[in-house]
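This week, look over our next protein:
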Amino acid sequence: MGARIRSRLTDWTVIAPLVAIVALVLSWGRKLPLPLVIVVALCLAAAVLAAVHHAEVVAHRIGEPFGSLVLAVAVTVIEVALIVTLMADGGAKSATLARDTVFAAVMITCNGILGVSLLVGALRHRVAVFNAEGAGAALATVATLATLSLVLPTFTTSRPGPEFSPAQLAFAGVASLVLYGLFVAMQTYRHRDYFLPVKQGADEHAEPPSSGAAWFSLAFLLVALVAVVGDAKVVSPAIEAGVDHAGLPHAVVGVVIALLVLLPETLAAVRAALRDRIQTSLNLALGSAMASIGLTIPAIALASIWLPGTLVLGLGSTHLVLLALTVVTGVLTVVPGRATPLQGGVHLALFASFIFLAVNP
């Protein structure tokens, strides 16, 4: 037993998050020169890989769809803390940070992660097969949450500009939280079979880890995710400086932060697709999009009581078109319950369009 514990403690998946936490503590609140920013970024990357490993251990122990849910919710909770922290710094640019980050998360998950998962799975196994009932329910929930939180503020008239009034923001926050809770209840209890992989991979027959190993991995998953989001916050001033120096729109900052924070889900989804567990990939992609909205908007609604400045949530016309096209394409993708590389390529084209238009609006 002692040898097993020592072996765990010397594993790179344990050392990497701890080193990343040390880097976070030593660099927090300081202006770092470029070489140290690179060091923190490398620690962040190592923590991402460690988080994926620990998430897979936990998922193997508790099974689907709980494993995907644990990773999605854990990342999103810490992402919310990062957004609130950045908004608390104040400034006119922080007014759109929540909107930019949440919308970027939706585009990354519903087009980037979903697209690359379908492409990889279909190329490796000819056709990517998944459960249409579960994927369809998740996509419908994402579309509703995105419309309530990011589309309606553009058209409401109680406040000038794409803003909610306090009462409207409170309603959107409560509705988002209730809808997300309802989906989780359906996913984990009443209709759990809708979210299980259609095909069983080799890992289904492997001996699951012990309870002790699962709890150990859960603890270090949380440590790794704190390190990922915290180190992302540390490097964000360098990101903002680079964006400003390049003359790019400030919205690019939200895109980069979302890309960094969602790296664990991306790697986990691709690895699941390679094992022909496409439903797990879709659970991660759509579940992360849902959690990003369903948990972020209520938290921002509550935090707006004491946060300085205004809160702009409404999307512009270009992003409204991208969101609408994403929803329509997503429906056509999930309804058949199977996808070829073409569907993956279509979603990746939408993701590439989002990135290009963020840089060159």
